[in-house]
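Dock copper (II) ion; give full complex structure.
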Amino acid sequence: MNLIFFKAIAGLINFGTLYKHYNPIPIFKAMKYFLLSFLLFLCIAFRANAQSRADTTIAFQVSGNCEMCKETIEKSVDVKGVKSAVWDEKTHLFTVKFNPGKVSEDKLHELIAESGYDTEKKKGNDKAYAGLPDCCRYERGRLPKSK
Ligand SMILES: [Cu+2]
């Protein structure tokens, strides 16, 4: 947003300077063109902004066993930008809705791994895994697939 305002101000200053030197068209016409192009610019800028802030939903595998795992996994991604997070005990599929402008996909993997659980991309933290209750000691080494 700062850049947008900087550009808008720079545009205003440029306009004034140019107008003094060339005076090619009546001032009202010039103002109209300037305002129109400025509005158009704002529209484009806001649209680009809105698009980058749209929520997205992804799903990936996270190891785990039970209801308690579900709680730990889902709570681990309770950060700004995450709208919903559901881990399925049977399929081990973790479905998360989040805002990519506020939190990255990699960060989500990181957070889950920190809580002791393996994800498709990141191995769970060993210390955190050792601290899990017995029922939650899932079989390790099945994930991550990509490494
Ligand atoms: Cu568990």
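Observed: The radius of gyration is 25 Å.
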